[in-house]
Every structure is written in C-alpha cells, then in structure tokens.
Amino acid sequence: MAGVTTFQSGHKLLVILSPNGQNVFGQTADRASLSGACAKGGYLTPGSVTSNLGAYINARCFTKPARFGADDPNALGFGNSGVGIYDGPGQNNFDLSLAKELPFRWPRENSSLEFRSEFFNAFNHPQFCDPDVDFTSPTFGQMFCTSVAARIIQLALKLSF
Predict the structure, then answer these.
(1) Could you tell me the residue range of the domain that residue 118 belongs to?
(2) How many C-alpha atoms does 74 have within 13 Å on its Cβ side?
(3) Cα–Cα distance measured from residue 105 to residue 80, given in angstroms and rounded to the nearest whole number
(4) Cα–Cα distance between 12 and 138 in angstroms, integer?
(5) What is the pTM assigned to this prediction?
C-alpha cells in the first residue's frame, strides 16, 4: 500500500478591472478599490466552496477606483485593494496504490505475478480552480472548472520470469 497526499492553500488573489488601454499609469489592468462594506478578511462569501461556485467573492466589498482627475475622465486612479487580500480555493487530494505480488514456480523458479491498482483522487473530492477576478466581468467571482480530475482508477498486471 502506498499513497500521496496533497494539502495546500489556495493562490493569493486580487480583484482587477478589465484591461484599460487608456490608463495614464501605463498599467494593463487596474486594481479595484475596497468599498468599505466588508470588514478586513470578509471578502469571500461565507460558506463552503461548493455552495459558493456562483459567488465565491463578495462583490459588495469592491468598487471601481475614483477618477484620477475631473479633466481626464478616461484614466482611473489606482485601486486601494491589496494584492493577495484573499485566497482562492485550496486543495486536498489523496492518491492511493495497492499492490500484491504472488510468487510461483512456472515458467521459472523465481517467477512472480504482480497485481497493482492505483486510485488518483481516490475519494473523488471536487477541487475548484480560481474564480473570475475581473470586477467588470458578468461572471465576477464565479468558478467554472476543477483543478483536479475526477477519480481515475488504473489496474495493472505484470508477469516476471
């Protein structure tokens, strides 16, 4: 019996605004600003990841940054939300392997038959990708993919002689 277990926290994420080619700072994307509606650390929707696939990030916590100047309506100021202020979904994955070797004397004295079974994501636990972090996107805060495949079972038989 053998196994590999992976426990890791999610990626440090930030909330951005879609690419802004008119930004006076030369940035390709702006950070969103904090709206003040949420306490520090309350930027994610409460509950489990699977219950919040459609709204992982609490959109009430963010807003567009203030304008840089009244005479320059296209360029926005820097948003005040920090980089890495919340984590994406973490991962806990279990891969298992079971093997049995059976010795026998045919066709040679030291022959054996090995049977192996391998289970990747053995408990079939869904693990999700990072959410959409573009505040201007209609899918902001939603998760659409998994980061680990569903359970995969592999069987093998090996004859050694």
Answers:
(1) 2-160
(2) 8
(3) 74
(4) 22
(5) 0.77
